[in-house]
Every structure is written in C-alpha cells, then in structure tokens.
Amino acid sequence: MRIGILGTGNMADALGTPWARAGHRLTVGGRDLARARRAADRIGAGARSGDLRTAVADAEVVLVALPFGAGTEVVRELAEPLAGRTLVDCTNPVGPGFRLLTGHGPSAAEQLASAAPRAQVVKAFNLCHEDVWRMRPPVFDGRPLTVPLCGDDPESLARVSTLIADLGCTPALAGGLDRAGLLEATAALFIGLWVGTGADVQAIAPPLAYASGPARESD
C-alpha cells in the first residue's frame, strides 16, 4: 500500500515504522523538509520524504499525524489532491484538564471530512500512547490490542483494518464517522484516568462474557 504521512512527530514514526517493515511504501511530508527527512530516516525501510503535497501525491492512504487544529488547516490546503484518498485521523482533541476541545460540535475527524469533502476519513489509533504502537506487537496478557475504527467508506475501512493487522492488532469496526466523537471522548476519559488519577482503565469493563451480566444457572 502507498502511504503518505502528514507530520514529522512521534506518531509519524511510531505507526510508520511497522508499516514500512510490513512492506508498505511510505512518504513523510512536512513543511520543514529537514524534519521530514529525519522522520523518514527514523522509519527506515526505504521511507521517502518531501513536502506535504509530495506525501499525498500518489498515496492510497494518508495518515494525519498533526496536532488537533493544525491538521484541519493542512487538510483544507490539500483538499484537491486528497480527493479519493483514505484519510486516517489519529488525533485527540484533548486540552487542559483533560477537556474535550470539540465540545458539543463536530468531532476532529468530522472536521477533517469537512475540510476535504472528497476524501474518505477513518478515525483510528487515537486511544494509545505512541510508544504502544512501537511494541512488536502490542500484546497484553496474551491478547493482541484491539483497535476500534470509525468510517463510512467500506474500502477505506478495509484498508485501515489491514494496517491495524500489520501492527499485530485486531481491528474492531465501531460504526460510521458520526461515532468518531465517541472515540475522541473515550480518549479524553482514559487519559484523564490514566494521567490524572493513575487508574487502571482496563479494569473498568467486565470481560465480554459478563457484558450482559453474569450467566444464571437454569433452575
């Protein structure tokens, strides 16, 4: 798969490195060409670099690895070349006090979709610290990490599901893009619990077998 990455920070190489090793062709794009080159060097495996337009020029999938707000501005500038592309949003609109910055308005993913209306946006990869994606693979207590994703286009969901599997994780379809805000709110909740109180978020939910309550023995 041909993957363009918008951004040169931690998420760019945390996700890009295992994808490149899985055989995908990556191009990292940034306004600062030197930083883009360093990010591509960190990824290795033949990853290329260039400006933002170069990153999306022949990409099938484009990862937006930019801070909330900045990503929307960049995507709006690239709306035309992004037409027909799968656009992956991994951002978290979380501010001071673990507050959800989107409030009651459109999610960050929906804002990207508005900025590039002919791209197919998928929300994914926003619930974990970048170092989790660097694990080979992210497996906990013998279970691969499950990665929820939201989007409206079946082909784009299939592409991103493949990229999730390439990380050694399990994709979980979580509905249309209108549910992306739920993933973003979940991130705000989880980060607040992890960082703010040191709570073990994994302990919040019971095992799947107990999702409808404990089984009752028949009389």
Supply database-style keywords.
single chain, 219 residues, alpha/beta, eight-stranded mixed sheet, two-stranded antiparallel ribbon
Task: Please give a structural write-up.
With 219 residues, this protein is of the alpha/beta class. It is built from 8 helices and 12 strands. The protein has helices spanning 10-21, 33-43, 52-56, 70-77, 108-115, 130-133, 154-166, 180-197, and strands at 2-6, 25-29, 48-50, 61-64, 86-89, 94-95, 99-100, 120-123, 139-140, 143-144, 146-151, 170-173. The protein has an 8-stranded mixed beta sheet with strand order 3-2-1-4-5-8-11-12, sandwiched between helices. Strands 6-7 form a two-stranded antiparallel sheet. The chain has a two-stranded antiparallel ribbon with strand order 9-10. The chain is globular and about 60 Å long.
Helices, strands, pairings?
Layout: E1 2-6, H1 10-21, E2 25-29, H2 33-43, E3 48-50, H3 52-56, E4 61-64, H4 70-77, E5 86-89, E6 94-95, E7 99-100, H5 108-115, E8 120-123, H6 130-133, E9 139-140, E10 143-144, E11 146-151, H7 154-166, E12 170-173, H8 180-197
Parallel strand pairs: 1-2, 1-4, 2-3, 4-5, 5-8, 11-12
Antiparallel strand pairs: 6-7, 8-11, 9-10
Helix pairs in contact: 1-2, 4-5
User: What overall geometry do the principal axes of the alpha carbons give?
Assistant: globular
Counted by DSSP, the helix tally is 8
Strand content: 15-25%
The oligomeric state is single chain
How many beta-strand runs?
A: 12
Residue ranges: pLDDT <50 for 5 or more in a row? none
Tell me the span between the first and last alpha carbons. 56 Å
What is Rg?
A: 18 Å
Average residue-wise pLDDT: 96
- Structural class, by secondary structure, is alpha/beta
